Amino acid sequence: MAAQTILFFPAGMMEVAGEAVAAQRRGEQVIGASSLDHDPDRVKFRDWEWLPFVFAPEFDAQFAALVARRHVTRVVSFHGAVWAHLARLLPSLPNPPELHPPRSPISAREGGQGRVWREDAEYLAEAWLGLAVPSLPSGLEFDGLADTAARIQGESNALKLAALVAVASVAPLGDVVEIGTLYGRSAFVLGWLARRYSLGPVLCVDPWRAEAARQAPAFLAELSQGWDMDPIFEGFRRNLSPCFHGTLNYQRQTSRQVRGDYGPGWQVTTPEFGATSYTGRISILHIDGNHDFDCVQSDVADWLPLVSPGGWLVLDDYFWPFGDGPRRVGDRLLAEGGFDFAAVIAKALFLRRSACE
Ligand SMILES: C[S@@+](CC[C@H](N)C(=O)[O-])C[C@H]1O[C@@H](n2cnc3c(N)ncnc32)[C@H](O)[C@@H]1O
Fold first, then answer.
1. Pfam families, from UniProt (predicted)?
2. Looking at domain 5-100, which of 3.40.50.20, 3.40.50.150, 3.30.450.150, 3.30.1780.10 is its CATH number?
3. pLDDT tens digits for 105-156?
4. How far, in Å, is the centroid of ligand 1 from the Cα of 17?
């Protein structure tokens, strides 16, 4: 197969950087081009060309000459107007390069997963809770939520996130506590839901340390050896701090350590999220930390008593291919009772604390 020569134009757009760097790393022939005399993004490209502005009378001829001289096979453009001009121009060239994205960047974005997700949440809420949920977010809000959550590396899938939406829409007021946050995918959804339904502040608890992330099943223990959790901790703060200043915060400690401090009026202050005050009563408790039986057991013993009547426990990985810690703890809770609702959705056990015990 003939080698590709990819022209990025205009090369200074945000979407270009990642793609161009990756293509250069793969050893592909990459050219950046811009109409600015001193484009600051030039440094990202080993190979650079200048082109007139797309509206200049000489643009078409100079662009055609560049394509022919450099044997360009693919043109990447994320600028709506430039893309539209190139879509008209390229077919008229002798060896037309392929244009990427194939549809206008202005209209190329699909509807996302949001609408399907909303239907899932609606179905789950009605089928499960037996009541019409007061106000599910609109399809468009779901689109935004699903798209943004999907961009965060994580282990929670769309169905579980849809179930969280259903749960949040009927949860009582109080703190939303997550044990085990990783990069913050589920925390992002919880943070958004807590605000959308005015539930209360969110607390993310995770030591972000390899020793804590290490779990007993031999297969996992071996694979997770030497994981560096610092970039994950940084990723979490990068992902969530732009959205939740003051309304969400974190503690980089084990759940047991944090439980010692947590209570009514407790305040957490961090450089990225500012100050957040907690009520000490939990609306939704998401336990998704270390899945070894002893850890899940102590997470439940420490935190479940703080969940308000009508509040929720989401015990992640009740069905888990690597071990049975969450399953054994969940089965014990089911046997003990105290819940007026129980269901497994997307491998997680959802339990609602009875309003009157
Ligand atoms: C399965 S991941 C969490 C996934 C996350 N909820 C998501 O949606 O992507 C488990 C996390 O639990 C954390 N963890 C391990 N032991 C913990 C503990 N004792 N307390 C709190 N978090 C813990 C690990 O550091 C890891 O980040």
1. Methyltransf_24 (PF13578)
2. 3.40.50.20
3. 776 555 566 677 777 788 777 777 776 666 788 888 888 888 888 888 887 7
4. 31
